[in-house]
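[Meeting: bench + compute handoff]

Bench side (C.D.) handed over the final construct sequence. Compute side (W.E.) agreed to return the predicted structure before the next meeting so the bench team could plan truncations. Sequence as handed over:
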Amino acid sequence: MPGAQHITTAWGRDYSDVTPLRGVIFDGGDCQEMTVGVDVERV
């Protein structure tokens, strides 16, 4: 169960509603890497 140290970053029915990347990537390279960051500020 989420506690005080957890935050909601997205809300949806399933993973496909809240994916961090949508679409198609055309690349001839062998190595792909995705980096995601979230900044949080108490309001």
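W.E. noted at the follow-up: Residues 9 and 35 are 16 Å apart (CA to CA). C.D. will use this when planning the next construct.
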